[in-house]
Amino acid sequence: MAGLAGDQSTGTLVISSEDVSREIFFVNGEIRAARSNLEKEMLGMWLVERQWISEDERALTLLAQGADQHGTLGHILVKRGCITQSDLEDELQKLTLEIIRRAASDPAPRFGFMGGQGDPQPDTLPNITTSQIILIAARECKDQVAMWDLLGSFDQQVSLKISLESVLGQLELTPSEGFILSRLDAAKDLSSLKHLSTMPEQEVVASLYALVVAGVVAIDAEVDPDEPPVEEEEPIEEVTGVHIVAGIDESGFEKRHLDERKRIKELADRVTRIDHYRALGLKPGAETDQVEKAFSVIRKRYSPKRVDEPHLVDQRANLTAIVDRAREAYELLSDPKARRRYEKVLESVSAQQAESTSSKPRTDASARRSVVEANIKRADQLIALGETYLAIQLLEQACALDPQPEELLKLAKLQMRNPLWIGRALERLRIAVEVDPTFVRGWLEIANFWKARGHTERQRKALERAVGADPWSEKAAEMYKKLVGGRELERLLRRVR
């Protein structure tokens, strides 16, 4: 499956043994659906056994499906109100993983691949990448011989095969996997990884095996001995809004080390939501020399080089986030003209927030909306002035009081300007379409988000939701057609109109 994903293949992988046949459908390297000839591995019986629907509902839906040439079982169940779209997607993901697990556990499976998209018309999988599916399946391996056949020996070189940004965008990692990736800033041998970790040797081996099978880590990578080592202080461009915080064993740490770990995690999360002065630990109006001194202290105290210390080996991303935020604050506050303008804006925003919190109780809907509208108006003014941080603070307050799709979308677009806030921006988009599932612009923004990161299948799913939200949206239809073709668009429109 990893090879099919890497080659961005489109077609059907058939895995058979005796009387069992399972089909995995690929579109551009992404697993789109799975199907089995075993009744217990079919969607209808799966939902019955998990008590989502009754046996009678399954039978009636199968009859309805026979009369509807364009309707899948899941689509009809959702249309009849037997299950929500969200719950259906969760169950499709679980069923697909189960089908793959069972196929992989067959004693003597036969494999065959038929190229071409065909027309299987199965219920399609929600947003889970092929790499994630393969990674989950690889974790099930208990065969030590198979692991070492792949890994070779402790002398083998290992390195990241794809960028860390891509890994974070595609995969949900275990703490052990996260630790390994956090240490692969340069190629290392397996023995070095083992010694850098407090994990048992077998846990390191199993995690590395899963990452290799998933195509994330390369074995026996060629390392140029003349190539200069990577400087630890260079910006970690791969980290985009998701902090790898691997679960290491803290039982042997001193209290001061535990306190520092806690402080770093809390500060890394907070620095994205505070003004420039507080990002440096200063009060507004601090002198220039205080600004310079504060930045110097932060840069030293939270240097990414400190990952060499045992209690901070998993904190590179958090340390980088703190230093980068402090650097932004230092650069602005060191410019007298920019600082004066910033202080005027800061005073205005502080007054706005004080007025907002001292007026009517927040339980008063009209009062809340008044605060929200005032915050949005002021945020728009700040955006025009280039004061993004303060605008984000006001919009976050507005969205907390009254989460509306338009404001959430505006907030997400602002947060996307900073690579460290990408994860938070995506969450705002998700909330926007949860608040209003018919919010087409939100779905289109999610589609563009995944397009920019090369996740075609996630882009396709978002566009499907956009077209489903408004089947007459020309923009949504055009984007979907451009991605999958006119035939697929026509098929989708027949289902949703």
| Overall spatial form | flat
- Give helix % range: 55-70%
Note the main sheet: 4 strands, antiparallel
Beta-strand portion reads: 5-15%
In the predicted model, the low-confidence regions spanning at least 5 consecutive residues are 221-247, 357-363
Q: Tell me the total number of β-strands.
A: 7
Number of helices: 24
The rounded Rg comes to: 26 Å
How would you portray this structure in words?
The chain is an alpha+beta fold. Among the domains are: 2-126, no CATH class; 133-219, no CATH class; 255-334, DnaJ domain (Helix Hairpins), CATH 1.10.287.110. 59% of the residues lie in helices and 7% in strands. It has helices spanning 2-6, 43-49, 55-67, 73-79, 85-105, 130-139, 144-151, 164-170, 175-183, 190-196, 201-213, 255-270, 276-279, 288-301, 316-333, 336-358, 365-385, 388-401, 405-415, 422-435, 440-452, 456-469, 474-484, 486-496, and strands at residues 11-17, 20-27, 30-36, 110-115, 157-160, 188-189, 217-219. The strands form two sheets. It has a four-stranded antiparallel beta sheet, covered by helices on one side. A hairpin with a 2-residue loop joins β2 (20-27) and β3 (30-36). It is flat, with a radius of gyration of 26 Å. Residues 221-247 and 357-363 have low confidence and may be disordered.
Short description:
By secondary structure, this protein is α+β, with helices and mostly antiparallel strands. The protein is built from 24 helices and seven strands. The model is unreliable at 221-247 and 357-363 (pLDDT under 50).
